[in-house]
Write a structure and sequence with these properties.
heterodimer, A: 113 residues, mainly beta, seven-stranded mixed β-sheet, 11 strands, globular, B: mainly beta
Chain lengths: 113, 111
Amino acid sequence: GAVVSQHPSWVICKSGTSVKIECRSLDFQATTMFWYRQFPKQSLMLMATSNEGSKATYEQGVEKDKFLINHASLTLSTLTVTSAHPEDSSFYICSAFSADTQYFGPGTRLTVL
Amino acid sequence: TQLLEQSPQFLSIQEGENLTVYCNSSSVFSSLQWYRQEPGEGPVLLVTVVTGGEVKKLKRLTFQFGDARKDSSLHITAAQPGDTGLYLCAGSSGGYQKVTFGTGTKLQVIP
């Protein structure tokens, strides 16, 4: 099946700094990618839909100025958590569709101290 | 807002037992997926069901899509410790539309 990668797999940062997470489709092109957030022992919550060459679509309650999304190419979407705070600590997962099947990245564990 | 409720939320059983996980919604979905997720990893697709009443079998796992395409179930026969994980159902409204995830069922199979 198709492969979606994320980098980094984990990151620890200080409060107030910004962190960039990359999501790549390795063997297919994705005009649309999705960013999810998952708290411990909970399900995935969709944060935003990343669209290649245009602005991302954010879900209700997600601050677009805090979670910056850039989808500059057909294989790369980035999520930047700006001015991170401890409450932003979470597991962030991206996904993309290939042939009507959604493939997920391995996730990025963000810990904000 | 489309919501998918899963039950039970947690399940701890002995190896060899059978179990069923339910996924219910008031919304109609064009397709429904089941995923299994292990700690620190992304979800892995188990199956996609698209037709009302459809039943799919994957070794010891049996998936069913409700006739009205609003609910689904996952039945595991003779559970094994390797089945331990978080099971998630997810409904799609078709094509590249965003997917709504269920509330999740955490399964623990004790040897």
